[in-house]
Amino acid sequence: MRIEVRNDAPLQNATPCLVLPVFQGASLEGAALELNGLMNGLLEEIVAQDGFKGSAGDTRVIYPNGQSQANRVMLLGLGARDKVSTPVLRRAGAKAARAVRGLKRDSFALVVPSIEGIEPHEIGAALVEGAMLGLHVFHDFKTDAESREQTIVNAVTLLASENREAIERGAHSGQLASEANMRARWWVNLPSNKKSPQFLAEQAQQIAQVNGLRCEVWDENRIREERMDALHAVGMGSDNPPRFIVMEYAPEGHENDAPLVLVGKGMTFDTGGYSIKPATGMEDMKDDIGGAAAVLGAMSALAEIKPARRVLALIASAENMINGRAQRPGDIVTARNGKTIEVLNTDAEGRLILADALSYASEQNPSAIIDFATLTGAIGIALGQEAAGLFCNDDAWCERVTQAGERSGDRVWRLPLWDEYKDHVKGTVSDVKNIGIDRRAGSIAAAVFLANFVGEGIPWAHLDIASVAFIREDRPLCARGATGFGVRLLLDLLRD
Ligand code: BES
Ligand code: ZN
Ligand code: ZN
Description:
Blueprint lengths: L1 E5 L10 E8 L5 H9 L3 H8 L9 E4 L9 E9 L5 H17 L4 E5 L8 H16 L9 H4 L6 E5 L4 H26 L7 H15 L2 E5 L1 H6 L3 H7 L7 E7 L10 E11 L19 H16 L5 E10 L10 E4 L5 E4 L6 H13 L5 E6 L4 H6 L4 E5 L2 H14 L3 E3 L4 H4 L9 E2 L8 H10 L8 E5 L5 E2 L9 E2 L4 H9 L1
Parallel strand pairs: 1-6, 2-4, 2-5, 5-6, 9-10, 9-13, 12-16, 13-17, 14-15
Antiparallel strand pairs: 3-4, 7-8, 8-10, 11-12, 14-17, 18-19
Helix pairs in contact: 3-4, 4-6, 6-10, 7-10, 9-11, 10-16, 11-15, 13-16
The protein binds ligand BES and zinc ion (2 copies).
């Protein structure tokens, strides 16, 4: 997508579609007011008589009859002026972009509103993110012409008469975040016959090479040598063996910083193993790579965002399948930190591979750890698709992650890690067991399990993204399928 910020007079911009923002319940202003004058009050008529009230995301297309250089003019409702926020702007940007796609135009120019209380760069970022993410489609395996037309819009111009520099900066950062987000969506949307732990490792290597990052990939032998018995056990039921991926971003002067460590669950498919999942809905388990995708997506943008700090990314990747070497319910494995785990359910595999990854993360003298995992179905029962579950052992770290989520649009909500829950995963014949008590507090049980593998005193945040990584119905910023959840949160956190 080509993104450009210009300060042309809107009515002079020769675009296939000029998008003019309109606030609900306010009189027309700027270019809309000017066009209204040139068209003998037509725009006011539309608002007064024809049902277009400027409510958030509402659009109305008019033929400007030569009064604008644009081929079509689109009124874009932003809702009441005092209710406009960055989420409203993102959604409005997406609505406008999709409406332009509906008109089969290849580009549009959008007049940037100024809004009290929202910085110009935030406005620029929100509009660009809305347009880019709203237009994203996964059509790699579609061969018909109509599907290809879904990508017809290839350029967006923001028209800004003031604060052009700040808007440009915001538009650029919105573009970077959206591109990184869409990379993550792609890994998740890919069907599992087109991805494997080795494929994911190659993607990481490619990203590292393009961006000048260090990248190391451990194969199944190295994983075992490194005492990652849990990851090894989960991965050995598949003909696609497990991989452990280490990436490092270390800008000059920060090579010896205590790193922020990002950890991602990268199951390229999860059948459940011998504790097999029901057939209905199993196809969605291609999304079990969502945590890894978030981490890798964020890493792919670091070379451009250039945070002045060291960042390590750790991805544990495996495929949970069934064969003669697959683990059995009741098996006991030893994680890298020495704790023994009774595998009472082979479908609770995410926490097993994360046990090794978090143990390794804890050895890296981290300033903090944040992990992303499509870990439990239960988190969707608790929070639906409106937020990821956040579990954190440190209030200040929790606050930073929450704020990054709020600002970026990747919302999170904290759930407790109280000591009482720790008993839920206490082992009988081992140190810990990989499931809790019955169906009680499933997401918390998983989180307290993970806490066993985080070193003393290390600020750690765990994000259970099982219900937000993949959506089953279209939304303004995301078509049905992968959401890329976590990428924008991470980039916000790293910019902070
Ligand atoms: N990958 C699943 C969790 C999941 C569920 C992801 C729905 C995306 C959408 C995870 O490995 C899993 O199977 N968890 C089990 C744990 C249970 C056996 C304790 C679950 O949530 O049912
Ligand atoms: Zn599972
Ligand atoms: Zn899983």
